[in-house]
């Protein structure tokens, strides 16, 4: 039997995560049946669960992957850019990590076991946000009358509010100026 390359395994894993992201985003955790996951990924259940122990492990891996991608955006461009990326999708196809974010939020509220498993992974975005704010402060671009911890909490609350807004299907067409205000509210203004 020929050996499968590591690149092939990684490509297959990525294919599963990409399909699962769409499936969980469209149908939610409970509605993402194995059959729907097979359809979304284009792979058999055997292929899917060769890479992931079960549906829970697949969802957690997807949530971790999305959290890492969001943290990368925060490190490079800040948390407001994550919010802008969420707005970049339309109501039919929101940014690909919105569905996962919504499911994580719902499961944190309703599933104590998931909350425990997720706790160790949930700090990525917080750490990336604080690090970015610290860097902005050292660069002289961040207001210095409010602590970095408070500013990080503020931005994360705005993110959660935006996620809720999008989850309710409310219009997002004119939220870019709102994000401009949010971004401006944490900046240090020359002459301050």
TrEMBL record:
It comes from Prauserella alba. Residues 10-70 form the HTH tetR-type domain. Keywords: DNA-binding, Transcription, Transcription regulation. This is TetR/AcrR family transcriptional regulator. The lineage of its organism: Bacteria, Bacillati, Actinomycetota, Actinomycetes, Pseudonocardiales. Pfam families: TetR_N. Residues 33-52 bind DNA. Gene3D superfamilies: Tetracycline Repressor, domain 2. InterPro entries: DNA-bd_HTH_TetR-type_CS, Homeodomain-like_sf, HTH_TetR, Tet_transcr_reg_TetR-rel_C_sf. SUPFAM superfamilies: Homeodomain-like, Tetracyclin repressor-like, C-terminal domain.
């Amino acid at each position: 039997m020929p050996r499968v390359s590591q690149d092939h395994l990684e490509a297959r894993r990525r294919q599963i995560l990409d399909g699962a992201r769409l499936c969980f985003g469209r149908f939610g955790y409970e509605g993402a049946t194995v059959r729907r996951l097979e359809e979304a990924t284009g792979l058999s259940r055997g292929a899917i669960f060769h890479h992931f122990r079960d549906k829970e492990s697949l969802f957690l891996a997807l949530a971790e992957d999305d959290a890492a991608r969001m943290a990368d955006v925060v490190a490079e461009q800040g948390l407001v850019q994550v919010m802008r990326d969420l707005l970049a999708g339309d109501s039919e196809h929101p940014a690909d990590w919105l569905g996962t974010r919504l499911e994580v939020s719902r499961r944190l509220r309703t599933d104590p076991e998931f909350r425990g498993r997720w706790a160790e992974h949930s700090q990525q975005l917080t750490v990336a946000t604080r690090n970015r704010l610290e860097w902005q402060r050292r660069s002289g671009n961040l207001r210095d009358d409010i602590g970095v911890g408070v500013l990080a909490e503020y931005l994360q609350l705005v993110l959660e509010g935006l996620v809720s807004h999008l989850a309710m299907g409310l219009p997002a067409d004119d939220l870019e100026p709102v994000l401009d205000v949010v971004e401006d509210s944490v900046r240090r203004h020359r002459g301050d």
